[in-house]
Amino acid sequence: MTRYRNVVLFVLLAAAWGSAFMAIKAGLGDPSAPGPFFETPVLFAAVRYDVAGVLMLAYAVVVLDDPLPRTRRQVAEVAVGATFLIAAYHAFLFVGELNTTSAAAATIVSLSPVLTTAIARGLLPSERLDLAGLVGLLLGLVGAVVIADPFGQTNLLSANVVGKLLVFAATLSFAFGSVLTRRLDSDLDIEAMEAWSMLGGALLMHAVSFALGEPVASVELTTGALLALGYLSVVASALGFLVYFDLLDRLGPVEINLVSYVAPVFAAAAGYLFLSETIDGTTVVGFLVIVVGFVLLKRDAIRAEVRSVRGGPTHGDD
């Protein structure tokens, strides 16, 4: 029964996070059909985490004895999370999605586990990548290039290519922030860390939005805008992270990483159903190449996980 529960929650999480890319695109729109937040993508991201951060903090206050970061290390971990996991990741992602599809954005973001592993290995001398790991990293990057399809463009700096590069920058920011928070390894509860990171990241994005001169007056809070914002804040962020925490405890980091590879399927389906987005062949090919790279990088951990599921002895950790 527990196994079925985990499978259902896993699929629901992948659906929530995958369809979030469609909700972002719906709020932003594109040059041919601008959405309510078309001129204010960073403000859109900031308001999303204003709401999500308050909800997460309320949850942390209820379930934790002390939700406040007390030590310098805890404060540093929150600062890293706010800067890289929330502010940089979402600012780049929301701006990038102005000129790319939901499926392409979700597929590029699925490169995150590959980049996280590579960065972690690069920062830890005792865990250098071997030949197979290097090939896996290279394949992941090749997959991202295939999706960006720069050679199929007459202008390498076209909006389509730049949009995908910005999504890649978002993914790199998230991977780098993940490694830094893991290295800091403070004893701050994950619920508190996420809540304060969300609020701090939202504040940083408001500052960036102001610095960019985004026209707040241009935002029309239509029913569609409120639905997109509510879905991103409540379903994808607040509820999504609660499910993620639960599955992380039950499944471990290897299996939960697989959400990144199921989410693009839901992103493509949601984009097609709600926004009539098409799924091109380069996105599919790039996704498959990234998956192969992930398998090569995490082969030892995947092997150990399979043995664990079968009830056999496990060894190794990637």
TrEMBL record:
<feature type="domain" description="EamA">
    <location>
        <begin position="163"/>
        <end position="297"/>
    </location>
</feature>
<dbReference type="InterPro" id="IPR037185">
    <property type="entry name" value="EmrE-like"/>
</dbReference>
<feature type="transmembrane region" description="Helical">
    <location>
        <begin position="46"/>
        <end position="64"/>
    </location>
</feature>
<dbReference type="InterPro" id="IPR050638">
    <property type="entry name" value="AA-Vitamin_Transporters"/>
</dbReference>
<feature type="transmembrane region" description="Helical">
    <location>
        <begin position="256"/>
        <end position="275"/>
    </location>
</feature>
<feature type="transmembrane region" description="Helical">
    <location>
        <begin position="281"/>
        <end position="297"/>
    </location>
</feature>
<feature type="transmembrane region" description="Helical">
    <location>
        <begin position="131"/>
        <end position="149"/>
    </location>
</feature>
<feature type="transmembrane region" description="Helical">
    <location>
        <begin position="224"/>
        <end position="244"/>
    </location>
</feature>
<protein>
    <submittedName>
        <fullName>EamA family transporter</fullName>
    </submittedName>
</protein>
<feature type="transmembrane region" description="Helical">
    <location>
        <begin position="102"/>
        <end position="124"/>
    </location>
</feature>
<keyword id="KW-0472">Membrane</keyword>
<feature type="transmembrane region" description="Helical">
    <location>
        <begin position="193"/>
        <end position="212"/>
    </location>
</feature>
<keyword id="KW-0812">Transmembrane</keyword>
<feature type="transmembrane region" description="Helical">
    <location>
        <begin position="76"/>
        <end position="96"/>
    </location>
</feature>
<dbReference type="InterPro" id="IPR000620">
    <property type="entry name" value="EamA_dom"/>
</dbReference>
<feature type="domain" description="EamA">
    <location>
        <begin position="8"/>
        <end position="147"/>
    </location>
</feature>
<keyword id="KW-1133">Transmembrane helix</keyword>
<dbReference type="GO" id="GO:0016020">
    <property type="term" value="C:membrane"/>
</dbReference>
<feature type="transmembrane region" description="Helical">
    <location>
        <begin position="161"/>
        <end position="181"/>
    </location>
</feature>
<dbReference type="Pfam" id="PF00892">
    <property type="entry name" value="EamA"/>
</dbReference>
